């Protein structure tokens, strides 16, 4: 299944954001992402001040609107699709957004709580449809944004909001190191299609092993609720 990506860029105050491909070239909409090419790499978002002394603010916000194209491939097997957890432990505890602490001498503790919706520009419960023209929805979006930047400090957190159609979105949150050498963890996404209910599901994570596990369950007809993933968002595909 091939996804067509449409990029929209929002610049707030003195901040800029740019999307680059794996070769370091700036991406311009529209462009196409194929999961079988370069591991489905969408791009790297770089955020920075437009001049030497940008003001304190939430920084730039980059939004990517995507639309799925192609025909869903029927899975192997006769079992119905279902959302399930590990049979040995049916309690799913998603990754905490706020780290327990920092290494001594590494950096100052974060000054904001990423669980507080007020520290983000995007309010998950107020976000409308990714593309209201699509009915049923075949579209979705990713939004990359940060908590507040200081005059000379980097933000405490960066997140990638993910959404299908008009469903309430979720976000993958990464801690931002104080030094420019270390970068946030990658955001990975797994997409599955239930041809019986005509739904698409997308889940976000930061661990390649977790994404491989979710894919293996999708082949069996299961949207697996992994404790190290941030959760499934479902929407109608056609």
In terms of topology, how is this protein built?
Elements: E1 2-10, E2 15-20, E3 31-33, E4 44-49, E5 61-69, E6 82-84, E7 139-146, E8 157-164, E9 170-175, E10 188-194, E11 199-205, H1 208-219, E12 222-224, E13 232-236
Parallel strand pairs: 6-12
Antiparallel strand pairs: 1-3, 1-5, 2-4, 5-7, 7-8, 8-9, 10-11, 11-13
Query: What would the principal axes of the Cα set say about the shape?
Result: globular
Strand order of the largest sheet: 3-1-5-7-8-9
Low-confidence stretches: 1-7, 75-108
Helix count, DSSP H or I runs of 4 or more residues: 1
| H and E order | EEEEEEEEEEEHEE
Distance between the termini: 14 Å
Query: What integer is the average pLDDT?
Result: 74
| Strand tally | 13
Which structural class is indicated by helix and strand composition? mainly beta
Assembly category: single chain
Q: In angstroms, what is the radius of gyration?
A: 18 Å
How is this structure best described in words?
The chain has 238 residues and is mostly beta strands. The chain has one helix and 13 strands. It has one helix at 208-219, and strands at 2-10, 15-20, 31-33, 44-49, 61-69, 82-84, 139-146, 157-164, 170-175, 188-194, 199-205, 222-224, 232-236. The strands form four sheets. A six-stranded antiparallel beta sheet has the order 3-1-5-7-8-9, with no helix packed on it. A hairpin with a 4-residue loop joins strand 10 and strand 11 (199-205). The relative contact order is 0.18.
